[in-house]
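Following up on my earlier thread - several people asked me to post the actual chain instead of describing it. Fair enough. Here it is, all 680 residues.
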Amino acid sequence: MVTAKALRVPRAVKVTPAHDFNDYDLGERYSLDSVTILGGDGTIDCPVPRFNGLRRFDARLEVIDALKEKGLYGGQEEHAMVVPVCSRSSDIVEPLLKEQWFARCDNLATQAIAAVESGELSICPKMHCKTWQHWLLNIRDWCISRQLWWGHRIPAYRVSFRNGHPKNQKADSENMWVSGRCYQEALEKAAAQLNVNEEHLELTQDDDVLDTWFSSALFPFAVHGWPSQTDDLDRFYPSTLLETGHDIIFFWVARMVMMGQKLTGRLPFKEVYFHSMVRDAHGRKMSKSLGNVIDPVDVIQGASLEDLHARLEGNLLDPAEKERSRRGQAADYPRGIPECGTDALRFTLCTYKAQGEDVNLDVNTVQTYRFFCNKIWNAALFTLNALPDNFEPSPMSEMLADCSIMDRWILSRLSDTTATIYNGFQGYDFPIITSAIHRFWVQNLCDVYLESIKLSLRADAHRAWVSRNVLLTCVDGGVRLISPFMPYLSEEIFQRLPRRPEREDPSICVAPYPTTEEFPMFDGSLEERVALSLDIVNRIRSIQKEFGISKLSGHIVCNNDDLRGVLSQLCPTMATLSSCRKLQMTNQEPDRCLATTVASDCALFVEMEYIDVPRVLERLQAKLAKTSTGLKKIEAQRSIDSYEDKVPQNIREKHDQQVEVLQADSARLSAAVAMLKTAR
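Reply from S.P.:
Thanks for posting it. Predicted structure:
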């Protein structure tokens, strides 16, 4: 861009309005002529015989020689500049000034802005409304023509009179154009405007094609037969929701809205949900030159490091970029990409962060959720093995009256999970949904309920019958809850589960999605009591781990009669889950026990018979000192003045995670040391 300051100095400045975007703006401002010196084939088109017809790069050298011959050459200097390069051919792109077709967009943009402001069109996340306003308030006329071999040909026809007609010369000079759905329609329109017979006119359709985004903007209604008023158009247009990436909010979404309002008088959809953009594990944009592009097929099927390197050979990269890509792949995937499957990848993408933030996709995270898929499959196998041959599920109304505390608890968790997922779908909050699904399957069903009913399944026939029905209810409901995220896994399990008489769905695709009306068993008071019992289980496990004891004996003292009754029934379950030697309720605080408060009216006492207090205390204090040293080391690094500016974000995030873990370890170890010191 040439500035006013540059024009004051006694030098000449080259300005090429026909071959540079910035120079074009300058030429418009100062009314400069736009002289085109490049032809469509890349050769020079000028009245100077010496340069005319030369290829563009040869002409530059020839111009330098001509300047030298006349003694006008002052030398050359290196300077940084932006050179546009074609991504397909790697050739240098040259801007050319050509006649184009434009669409006036100011009125269209005004209507699109009003649709969002009035709430007629909803954008989610709301943060993108600002981007919507910015693009449309600053909109320009839209160049809709492209000089390509593919695409929808522009329905514009140049009109000329046939030879011998008296208006032939005049028509050619006026450069008259008409549009039409076909040649005949355009011919009739031209004849009517010129008030002549069609036989005197000749029409030539423009060779340009429509911009791809223009054709895409017609998609919501064109696929249903528009402009004809078809049954499909009446039934399916407008649609409800558009889900897409926020990087094309203007290029596609806004243009679909403008076209829909202009051509059909209706919005093409009521809601727009913009998903996050996927980056690599370090937060970098995926790039072939960096070698950090993650092919979804590789994550689904797996790929060795050698396979990843081999694919670089087919890319149009120079040797330096290929070597950089190989190093990047070797650093990120030293053992290749493990096979994770489609369901695990889909579920992982929905777990990331809040709405609107970019997704830093880590293949190790995808692999973690592949293990989650395995856990669901194993839980389903456990369920099928627990059911006798030809098992016929009973209606839920028949089994609820005989349910144990843990039966009612897992049904309450299923009901609460269903409600959480419903609310998450209403707000497009997929991380909340996936967290609820993961918590139900892993923490509630697998870690607690399945372990708690292993004895029940071997008990009397009626008790086992109730447990089997509850287990099947939870697995069936849980499988249907995961079906939008894991369609393949859920279908495989669903086809193997026995059906209740009232529901004979042939596929999970047509099975009703769980609702709180189907599972109305939420009991908040019961969940609080069971949560307290699970807290006792976790405390026993922690003590056994910290003190190095395989099995211990414990006592629970509770002054709340209602809670005491629940805990008494749950003592066998708590003993099973915590793998302790013995766990029982008692009225008096026992001697020679480690005491820990569970609630204001409940405490846990662990017998010290199997604990070598001096040895365990020494070991815990050594671990606490090591943890404190590591914490101080990281805090010293974080206290440096230039920490936020010079340390990469991924390193800072790693430090934050380490501090969080060390602080939790320190608190846990400190509590264990204090417990030993105050032991009776």
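Confidence is low (pLDDT under 50) at residues 1-7. That should answer part of your original question.
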